[in-house]
Amino acid sequence: VNDYGDYEYVGNITIGSPGQSFIVVLDTGSANLWVPSTNCEYVLNFLLQYNSSVPNFSTFSRSCNQKHKFVTSMSSTFVRTNRRWRIQYGSGDARGQFGKDIVRFGGDDENQLIVPRTTFGLATHISADFKEDPTDGILGLGFTSLAEGGVEPPLVNAINQGLLDQPIFTVWMAHRGEQEGVYGGVFTYGALDTKNCGPVIAYEPLTSATYFQFRMKSIGAGTFKSKASYEVISDTGTSFIGGPKSVTDRLAKAVGAKYLRDEESYEIPCKAKPVPIDIYIGANKYSIKPVNYIVNYQLHFNPSQAGDNTCLFAVFPMDGGAFGPAWILGDPFIRQYCNIHDMKAERMGFAIERIEKEDHARPAQSFSHHHDNKAYIPYDKLFDAREVEYATKIEIGTPPQEFTVALSTRFGVLAIPHPYCLGWCEGKKRFYFINSLTYSAGSYPWSMSVAGENVSGIVGNDTVTLGKVSLRRLKTLTSCQTMQIGGTGEKRLHVPSATIQGVGMDRFRSGVNSEAVSDIGIWIRGPECSVSELAQIAGAEVAFAGG
């Protein structure tokens, strides 16, 4: 793994036969592999068909110009598919088509993990946020439930094929300061990294096997210690540590950092010697030393002023979900402690870095670099928890695509993310209408206001299956709906021609709330129904989700 100023860590992979080389972000905060395709410069933006306010994405397509691109005709093992994908990150997005081929973790001169029959994305568009980044694409290392399109992530594929000695991987990241393009860490697949990491301090069970998400009891610095516990994720793809502003402000004050409103970040003198940041997980306290949370940002954004003694406090304010992660433990935490990802046991382990006397640093390829510290942040809040009380399962389309949805009497529509949805849709399932035999497109757009923000998209029609509702309750549910519902069996209710509103056009600001317990933002309302009546209708098949 190469380090760029303690700001981004990148690795090498090859795809195809013979192998084509790519530089990728090794990202535990996502679960898809994608690289640019040779068509990347020429794709027109789909959203322009529906919303003239969307910026001209033809400028975005030029983001592919300096990237390595996968040439399908040069690989004898490539298999084309007709499935499309789109991924929205905290900053930037990418989209294209899926394909299958051999993927090799590591460069040609390294000990490679070879994974046949791996599904990966061929990007036909990457947004301008990635243009100056030294990487070609992203290798997501998360769980299948996090993967766009429900595809099997490359590492999960390797585990399922029995290619690893153990279903684990270890991440060690080194502190390299202002050096760029130097050897900066190791991702060890299938084993503990005993060379760079000491004994495991403790394991913490995951609370959600989507991200590597677990519970943090508290966080503090100096005399400050938070009183609340939080859901957190470990994320190699996030440069800094993110959390609620009310707490990050207190941390900044404790270490002597100052908030820059225009930059939405904290500034600290480069030569400051503040107290450590203390993170409490399980029965243990994990302290992050200042050397790992003070970063020279001028090196990345304004090299001419890199010596002015102004650095960044590598913590940023963010809005997390009411039921999802409130904190992201990014690279500063991982530089301090090796992270062991046990995918079978669904747990995280932490180990102290083993300090070696030898200098690991060695030259690597040189690239220009810019990376937004907000990239890969999951913004998954749409509703305040007080407005979402029940969640259940529905299916849409033929063959059916399953979603977890919130039931709300506040809105009168069924709205799901379009494949090209932006903003809060990150981490949510999308409705791939192209895969449904019964889908018919509507002829008009729609929009509505949610929490003061405009949401808009296009209208379509398809079959909807609502949970496991018994036939005797069919009449009650029908009376609560604004649309005609017809039953086709004892166990499920089908809506053969339901109107589906695809959320797809507007970006949400980070302050807008979303409901993390749901795969998607959905509102189902009949004017005569209360939440309690909906609960009685769906019975045990509706799960309490907050409030």
UniProtKB/TrEMBL annotation:
GO molecular function annotation: aspartic-type endopeptidase activity
Positions of disulphide bridges: 40-64
Cell location: Secreted
Keyword annotations: Aspartyl protease, Disulfide bond, Glycoprotein, Hydrolase, Protease, Secreted, Signal, Zymogen
Coiled-coil segments on the chain, per record: none
Main localization, broad class: secreted
Active-site positions on this chain: 27, 235
Annotated GO CC locations: extracellular region
Domain Peptidase A1: 9-351, 390-547
One of the GO BP terms on file: proteolysis
PANTHER family the record matches: BETA-SITE APP-CLEAVING ENZYME, ISOFORM A-RELATED, PEPTIDASE A1 DOMAIN-CONTAINING PROTEIN
UniProt family annotation: Belongs to the peptidase A1 family.
Name of the protein in question: Peptidase A1 domain-containing protein
The organism of origin for this protein: Heligmosomoides polygyrus (Parasitic roundworm)
